[in-house]
Write a structure and sequence with these properties.
This protein has 504 residues and is α/β, with parallel strands linked by helices. It has helices spanning 17-35, 37-44, 75-85, 135-149, 168-177, 193-200, 221-231, 251-264, 327-340, 346-352, 358-385, 414-422, 461-481, 497-503; strands at 97-98, 162-165, 182-188, 204-210, 233-239, 267-271, 303-308, 321-324, 399-403, 426-427, 429-430, 452-456. 36% of the residues lie in helices and 11% in strands. The strands form three sheets. The chain has a seven-stranded mixed beta sheet with strand order 2-8-7-6-5-3-4, with helices on both faces. α6 links the parallel β3 and β4. α5 (168-177) packs across α9. It is globular, with a radius of gyration of 24 Å.
């Protein structure tokens, strides 16, 4: 036989060289995860252990309520908990730079309409709202989408195509609750909450596709068509514009994706919360993106759109959002909402109606795009000055997907980088939270997102500079003291009732 010889083990058995190398590599990386303090803290947090037969609890040694299992926290929640362990509190949040927040700044920005300062409370608004939402708001949403994306099209949205929901996650949960036993396609990296949705709603069988930085994390529609044929996909979920990479599917690519859903009978669930956050270089401000533009028939095309006031209108505290889709979907969402969440806040739904006036919306869009483009450019410039050039700069959203791979170990992984910045009163989100991995079995060091962090330029500019200064201090320390100065001495999380009692 030609080729590489097969080594003989001490037991006398032969083992193919490549297989033995794979085993050694797995063992080596597993040891690294155990030996990393930042990774151990993550795994010890409830819901983050590899999923198996035993339920996960805050502390397995404590008596807990039978049958309760922790689903695992989204990135922002875990990072907030870790920040609190390091002294963060909402009362003293001004002392911290929160570059991890998944929300935009909510104050007045240049050229934008005035922020809402009061909310009317008519007596009728003190009653429950319908689980599908206030009719006048549903009409306002339908009219806005028709004006923005469906001018000249025969098929138009009506209020019957709109369901108002108390937040984007509630919208996702309502949709997931009415989906049958299907293969569900998703991409890596993507929005952290998809991990929990795919874990909790077990009728959705997750089918991942990894996106590549070499292609600017572009969604390959031809590959999706092939997956539909070969894997029997029936549902696809995606954020667009894309969290955390800051890229966007638009134009012919978006049209092809919607066409594929229609022609292949695949339900396309589009999370469009960042649809206004586009940063044009050679075109006018004020354009936004939505798959609604390419739908033929609003009651037949299997396209579901989730959006709301949270990001575009910069009102995350209102929890007023919507799901847009065929009429028969909306009736199903009314039923799932009746037992999942009960509906959105009634007075705030009424207060939201004038905010959807198309002229006001255009003014909001232009102001938002100018302001956030300025912040994006400022952060990218400062990162480059720190030696952290962003490989794929964002063209949408308010996130930067930062690769740390070239930094000295152990700063070159997102979890350790995150823990070191907590010491400097700065929060970022480790990349592993965007590795949608519902079983949590993948070795963290094997994750394609392991060497990344997500930075948000959602906060005000002064907060961004505070956080960038902190990153600069960490990098300066690494240059002066080397890698041995990092990866240890992290504070324990505040987990469990007994530990909380000690703090109260």
């Amino acid at each position: 036989m030609s080729g590489a010889s097969t080594p003989i083990s001490r037991s006398g058995r032969s083992t193919p060289l490549h297989f033995r190398d794979v085993v050694h590599d797995v063992i080596r990386h597993y040891r690294h995860e155990k030996d990393s303090e930042a990774h151990r803290i993550f795994r010890q947090s409830a819901g983050h252990k590899p999923k198996g037969a035993l339920p996960q609890t805050v502390n397995p040694d404590e008596e807990t309520i039978p049958g309760i299992e922790h689903p695992g926290s989204t990135g922002v929640i875990y990072c907030s908990d870790r920040a609190m362990a390091n002294g963060f509190s909402y009362a003293s949040s001004h002392e911290w730079a929160n570059l991890g927040q998944g929300a935009p700044e909510v104050g007045q920005i240049p050229e934008a309409p005035p922020r809402p300062t009061s909310i009317p409370l008519p007596v009728d608004s003190l009653e429950y709202a319908p689980t599908t939402g206030v009719k006048a708001l549903r009409e306002a949403v339908a009219n806005l989408y028709n004006q923005q994306y469906r001018q000249g099209k025969l098929s138009q949205y009506t209020y019957e195509n709109v369901c108002i929901v108390p937040g984007g996650r509630a919208g996702l949960s309502r949709v997931a609750a009415v989906v049958g036993d299907v293969y569900c396609s998703y991409q890596i990296p993507d929005y952290t909450a998809y991990d929990q949705v795919l874990s909790a709603f077990k009728r959705l069988v997750p089918v991942p596709t990894a996106l590549d930085a070499k292609n600017k994390y572009r969604l390959d529609v031809e590959q999706i068509k092939k997956d539909v044929r070969t894997q029997g996909l029936e549902v696809m979920i995606a954020s667009n514009p894309r969290n955390p990479t800051g890229q966007v599917i638009e134009g012919e690519d978006l049209k092809s994706l919607v066409d594929t859903a229609r022609e292949s009978s695949v339900t396309l669930i589009m999370d469009e919360f960042y649809s206004w956050y586009r940063y044009p270089e050679n075109e006018e401000y004020g354009r936004s993106v939505s798959s609604a533009e390419f739908i033929d028939n609003v009651n037949q095309d299997p396209v579901v759109i989730i959006n709301g006031l949270t990001k575009n209108w910069r009102l995350p505290g209102w929890r007023v959002c919507w799901v847009l889709g065929p009429k028969n979907l909306i009736t199903a969402l009314s039923q799932s909402g009746s037992f999942l969440d009960g509906g959105a806040n009634h007075p705030l739904q009424i207060a939201a109606i004038p905010l959807l006036d198309p002229e006001r919306v255009l003014q909001e869009k232009i102001a938002l795009q100018k302001h956030f483009k300025h912040k994006r450019d400022h952060v990218l410039k400062r990162l480059e000055e720190l030696g952290l050039k962003v490989e794929v700069p964002p063209v949408a959203t308010f996130y930067i997907w930062l690769n740390l791979e070239h930094l000295p170990a152990p700063l070159n992984n997102g979890l350790t980088f995150f823990e070191e910045l907590l010491k400097e009163k700065t929060i970022v989100i480790p990349g592993i939270f965007f590795d949608i991995n519902p079983a949590h079995r993948r070795n963290l060091f094997h994750s394609p997102c392991h060497h990344f962090v997500r930075l948000s330029f959602g906060p005000p500019l002064e907060d961004l500079d505070k956080g960038l200064d902190a990153i600069g201090r960490v990098l300066k320390k690494a240059k002066k003291e080397g890698g041995h100065a990092f990866g240890h001495s992290y504070k324990k999380s505040v987990d469990g009732v007994h530990q909380l009692d000690k703090l109260i």
